[in-house]
Design brief:
The chain is of the alpha+beta class. It has 4 domains: 2-61 and 566-709, no CATH class; 97-127 and 234-282 and 384-459 and 496-549, no CATH class; 130-232; 283-318 and 330-382, no CATH class. It is 60% helix and 11% strand. A hairpin with a 5-residue loop joins strand 6 and strand 7. Helix 2 (27-67) runs antiparallel to helix 25 and helix 27 (615-650) runs antiparallel to helix 29 (676-702).
């Protein structure tokens, strides 16, 4: 037994020595085959690391911004949940009527860390125009003067009046062209003539000279007859998630407040999406400058060769009205002074100065961009909505009527990794109580208001069978309450029925956690302690909810992401296919190299067989040589692949040159990271294929007789 073991060890040592001697003797062949193996390992390691990094980044962005790990929604819903909208439009979900019950049940499941209520919807936002803003400033001055008496000098008041007069003049200049081309005998002109006359009156000096005699009437004229002529403002659409802001902030670290402050716990408010604000609320000239800068810096585009950039420059120089309308006389003088100094000119016309500033080319763009934001932007309101403003959100409720809610803007929110995604980066965050108002849910405040109205109106509940008698008399119906004319106390009604005082109380009120949870939600995000347990946790969540009397469906964050999730699946398929192609090409090359190298040794194998070597010995010899080549050169290839990945990371990664790549990379650049599992798998597969590639031709060679092998060159 011992002798047999010693003999096998001796044979093994001889086998290894012969294999090493053969590898050294055939250095060229070994180097060529080994180089191909190393190249295949490099390609596979690099491709798998890029794929893993993209997949991990996209997963982190969606999970950390809105998706969570698992989403729950009413099992009676016919449509699937789509957080970012489905391919066929918005999904219509049945509500979860009692979120508190669902939350209590879900939190009993092991591994659940947080449950966040959600309601995804879109609505219209009513936006005032610059004329409205200027009117509100002047109106505040008038109230101050009426309360405290007009001071001897009031430069701010006079500047605000002069600003409105200048704005009316600019509007008149815009409408003058329409008047010149209009047929004065047509009905269209007659309808517009009243507007032209009203605007002319607002420009005349006499109107402003007599403004102080009856300022309230003058303000009413400006508000009702002149302000509507401005084409600014109107409505924009907003997409938002109604949620518990405090729980949302804890659950989703990717949602970062980049300006302002988070919504205070238990209070009403909205965080507007930063991308939404950039695209829809920002001053158009400033937004165009940003887009030109982005195109130049990130995409390498140049104004001189790009028609779209040239169009943006032309629009900026020709459409300065939005900027000029914001500048009152005081700010106009300051803007002229700053721009003269920055541009090195003596031009005093503000319109020409602004146009000159915005007349950019590739040579002066960077300097003009800095001047705009350093000198002119501080004198402007860059966004039509700013932190601290109230906005009016209007949306159709589930009952069909349009709900309208005023809500304070606490700040702007940005979703990390999705900040430039038009699909996922536009989302705003709204408190759950305001969302329930818009959705049509009967909140306690609304129920109390209805009760007060019913009490004042003397309304009583009447059974269906007694309705006719109650309306038209007869039967035993109680007599209708009599009413007599009364003096309306406006102050009392406003204070009690939703006036300014009531609104202030509403937005200063703090809701307890029980009030926040006790109500309707459309879906709920579940955050786990261990994200790897998503699949095994989903049935447990459904079971726990069912025991509490709530029927829900559980889906993964990817399924719930709607069109974004579908895009991710498509991108994953494309990436996996690309890596698979690279992998297949590398393996085919390795296989061919191994087959050729082994077949070239048929004569050598025949000679070994002729001098007494057994087939098993020859086969073992070939395998030892291949394994050694694979280990050495595969290790070198893996080291080279790791080094390339490290170098890419050290140099800042692969830059995202467009919005699609930005979404794909979950940021401005892709920093590839090595995954131990994927690295080991890639090397192991390449190594295994190398062995199999050598084993097949070796088996073929074993079937050749020694005489045939030794005569193979003569054939």
């Amino acid at each position: 037994m011992s002798g047999s073991s010693s003999s096998r060890v001796h044979q093994g040592r001889i086998l290894v020595e012969i294999a090493m001697r053969n590898l050294v003797a055939s250095r060229v062949r070994t180097t060529v085959v080994g180089g191909i193996v190393a190249l295949g390992v490099v390609v596979v390691v690099l491709g798998s690391s890029l794929l893993d990094s993209i997949d991990a980044g996209m997963t982190r962005s969606i999970q950390g911004s809105l998706g969570g790990h698992i989403q729950l929604y009413n099992a009676a819903s016919r449509d699937p949940l789509a957080l970012y909208g489905g391919t066929m439009g918005e999904s219509v979900l049945e509500p979860i009527s009692d979120f508190a019950r669902l939350k209590g049940a879900v939190l009993t499941v092991p591994g659940v860390r947080l449950v966040v209520p959600m309601g995804i919807d879109q609505a219209m936002v009513s936006m005032g125009n610059v004329f409205d803003v200027a009117l509100e400033r002047l109106r505040a001055d008038v109230r101050r003067r009426m309360a405290n008496g007009p001071p001897a000098e009031d430069p701010e008041y006079e500047a605000h009046k002069a600003h409105l007069r200048r704005m009316a003049t600019l509007l008149q200049q815009e409408l003058r062209q329409a008047r010149e081309i209009a047929d004065e005998t047509s009905g269209v002109y007659k309808d517009r003539k009243a507007d032209f006359d009203a605007l002319a009156r607002a420009v005349e000096g006499g109107f402003w000279e007599h403004f102080d005699e009856d300022p309230l009437a003058s303000l009413e004229f400006l508000e009702n007859r002149v302000a509507p002529l401005s084409m600014d403002g109107g409505f924009t659409f907003i997409r938002y998630v109604g949620t518990d802001p405090e729980a949302f902030q804890k659950a989703f670290p990717g949602a970062q407040v980049v300006e302002g402050a988070p919504i205070p716990p238990g209070q009403r408010g909205v965080l507007l999406g930063k991308l939404y604000a950039e695209e829809w609320l920002k001053l158009r000239a400033a937004r165009r400058l940003d887009k030109i800068r982005e195109a130049r810096d990130l995409h390498g585009r140049r104004i001189a060769k790009d028609e779209e950039l040239q169009r943006w420059v032309k629009e900026n120089t020709g459409q300065t009205r939005d900027i000029l309308l914001q500048l009152d006389p005081v700010r106009t003088r300051e803007a002229v002074r700053r721009l003269q100094a920055a541009l090195g000119t003596k031009e005093s016309d503000p319109a020409r100065l602004v146009s000159a500033l915005l007349d950019t080319d590739d040579r002066n763009f960077d300097a003009r961009y800095r001047i705009f934001y350093a000198e002119l932007a501080p004198l402007l309101q860059l966004y039509s909505v700013k932190v601290g403003d109230f906005i009016t959100i209007k949306a159709p409720s589930r009952s069909g009527y349009v709900s309208s809610v005023n809500v304070p803007v606490y700040g702007f929110v940005e979703f990390r990794g999705l900040e430039r995604s038009a699909l996922a980066g536009m989302m705003s965050v709204l408190d759950i109580h305001t969302w329930r108002d818009l959705y049509g849910y009967l909140t306690p405040e609304r129920a109390a208001e209805i009760a007060r109205l019913k009490e004042r109106a003397g309304a009583t509940m009447v059974a269906r069978e007694e309705a006719e008698a109650a309306l038209f008399g007869g039967g035993d119906a109680p007599p209708a309450p009599s009413s007599a004319p009364q003096v309306i106390d406006e102050n009392r009604l406003l204070a009690a029925g939703g006036g300014k005082g009531a609104r202030e109380d509403l937005f200063l009120r703090r809701y307890g956690q029980a009030e926040t949870d006790a109500g309707v939600a459309l879906n709920a995000a579940v955050i786990l302690e261990d994200p790897r347990r998503i699949e095994e946790t989903m049935p447990l969540l459904v079971e726990a909810a069912a025991k509490a009397g709530v029927r829900v469906k559980a889906v993964t964050w990817l399924e719930a992401s709607g069109i974004v999730g579908q895009s991710m699946k498509l991108l994953r398929m494309v990436l996996y296919l690309a890596v698979l192609i690279i992998f297949a090409v590398a393996l085919v090359i390795i296989n061919n190299a191994m087959v050729m190298a082994t077949l070239q040794r048929v004569k050598e194998i025949g000679t070994m067989r002729a001098i007494g070597a057994q087939r098993r010995f020859v086969l073992s010899l070939v395998l030892v040589e291949v394994v050694t080549t694979g280990l050495v050169f595969g290790g070198l290839g893996a080291a080279a692949g790791i080094a390339i990945v490290r170098v890419i990371g050290w140099t800042g990664g692969i830059a995202a040159t467009n919005d699609t790549m930005y979404f794909l990379f979950s940021g401005p650049a892709l920093i590839p990271r090595l995954g131990a599992a994927s690295l080991a798998t890639s090397v192991a597969i390449v190594f295994l294929v190398s062995i199999l590639s050598a084993l097949y031709p070796a088996l073929l060679a074993m079937r050749v007789t020694p005489l045939e092998a030794m005569q193979s060159d003569d054939g």
